[in-house]
Amino acid sequence: MGYAQYKELDSSGVSWLQKKPSHWRIKRLKFSTDLINNKVSVEDSPLPYLGLEHIESWTGRKIEGEISNSEGLASSFVVGDVLFGKLRPYLAKVYLAQQDGLISSEALVIRSKDELDAEFLKYYMLSRDFINIVDSSTYGSKMPRASWDSIGNLPVLLPDVEEQKVIACFLDFKTAQIDALITKQQTLLDKLAEMRTALISHAVVKGLDPSVSMKDSGVAWLGKIPENWDVWKVTHGFGKIGSGTTPKSDNPIFYDGTIPWVTTSELRESVIFDTMQKVTVEAVASHSALKIYPAGSLAIAMYGATIGRLGILGVEATFNQACCVFSDPMVFDNRFVYYWLWMRRPILISLSNGGGQPNLSQDDLKKIWIPIPGLDEQRTIVRFLDAKTAKVDEQVKKVESVIAKLLEYRSSLITNAVTGKIDVRDFQIPQSAEGLAS
Q: Which of 10, 50, 52, 214 is deepest in the core (most CB within 10 A)?
């Protein structure tokens, strides 16, 4: 990383910590902190409530936005307490309290003693090595939790308090720099997403000829369309619109076959060549609703959180009941319809019904009107969008790679600083604007 290293090291006696600076002490966490177990009724307390969902993973930050209320008992905390999410600890939900409040009972409230700076403790508990060792101690398969008995017995490295404060100050400054770079990359991702949406929207609504005259579509929510385009109802433009089913899970003869079986988790705006699960010929023969659709078929998710997600078959496959499948197109190019549905996803979701889980039905989707040019022009538009979106997607991958590297660097920097792998004792915050931007 280009930072100095401590010259005098000795063994920590702990395999995952390896060597430590010789002047650093090592102590069990429970002897340097107190576990605060003060339960308070949420309804009876004026203190603000904090859920684990409002603590960002791996950053130590509280997520801005409305803080939801809860019911029952919660743990109270005060300014300076470190909150550690014991549920699914691999998520690294760690927060240094900036105000008094209440936290979900799925978090530990840890108060450092005089020999341990709270900021240093926050970063120590955010270090990759610490999170990994805590995660290895969890109990429960579906909802893994860590216990204080296990966490409290873990070692904490203790330079003197002044050195702890320097390390914490160094990490505050450096992580803020990294976070600013990540924010810039996220902004670039947002712009690329807007560019992609604008490309698709313009092409499937107005075509590629900017001089074309427009006419009224005859469908209120579609507005105007190019004068040489027609409007077709989905049910009239495909020879087959259907779905699938889930073979009985208690019969092993239906699974681990060779026929791909698509669920909504595999609808990810891409071509589907393989699936997590495959069904057998016996499953298809035993379930009349389990039909095999040809390659090129277009599928859309009808239920829940994945509603409106899309996929195109690259191979023959079957589907579960949560997918609606369009095949045997008569006037449509499937990829043109794919782009049009992708652009209109918000409209599709608005057509859904249901309470907590929005649902689309096949009947809802069959009633959709789609404006289209002739097949040749549809295919020209598809080739244009395939090429343009591929370039945007490549840029997105590069930006995402930069973000991933920045996040990895952030994590490594924290781990190396709090475990004595780098020496930052001479660090001073730059006073100039040039220093802050460097």
A: 50
**Burial (Cβ within 10 Å: 0-12, 13-18, ≥19) of residue 244:** buried
Cα separation, 109 vs 77, whole angstroms = 7
* pLDDT, tens only, 366-393: 999 999 999 999 999 999 999 999 999 9
Closest listed residue to residue 220, CA positions, set 352, 347, 378? 347
Distance CA 271, CA 361 (A): 23
CA dihedral (169, 4, 183, 180) positive or negative: positive
Q: Using one digit for the tens of pLDDT, what is the confidence trace for 50-96?
A: 999 999 999 999 987 666 556 789 999 999 999 999 999 999 999 99
Residue 62 DSSP symbol = B
Smallest CA-to-CA distance from 346 within 167, 124, 197 is with 197
Query: Which residue type, as a one-letter code, is found at position 240?
Result: K
- Report the alpha-carbon angle 164-166-167, nearest 5: 65
Range of the domain at 227: 209-372
DSSP assignment letter at 292: P
| Residue 61 belongs to a domain | yes
- 67: exposed, middle or buried (Cβ count in 10 Å: 0-12, 13-18, 19+): middle
Tokens (6 digits) for 192: 């690329």
**How many whole angstroms separate alpha carbon 18 and alpha carbon 130?**
13
Strand 82-85 relative to strand 94-96, pairing: antiparallel
- Please tell me whether residues 340 and 227 are part of one structural domain: yes
DSSP helix/strand/coil, 167: helix
In three-state secondary structure terms, 287 is: coil
The structure tokens 């700076």 sit at: 117
Phi-psi region of 133 (alpha: psi -120 to 50; beta: other; left: phi over 0): alpha
What whole-number distance in Å separates Cα of residue 91 and Cα of residue 371?
45
Task: Looking at the structure, tell me whether residues 274 and 324 fall in a common domain.
Answer: yes
Report residues of the chain scoring pLDDT below 70. 1, 65-70, 353-357, 432-438
Q: What's the CA gap between 158 and 163, in Å, rounded?
A: 9
Euclidean distance between the first and the last CA atom of the chain, given in angstroms as a whole number: 15
pLDDT tens for each residue of 282-330 = 999 999 999 999 999 999 999 888 899 999 999 999 999 999 999 999 9
b vs e for 295-320, b when ≥16 Cβ sit within 10 Å of the residue's Cβ? ebbbbbbbbeebbbbbbbbeeebbbb
358 and 383 part of one domain = no
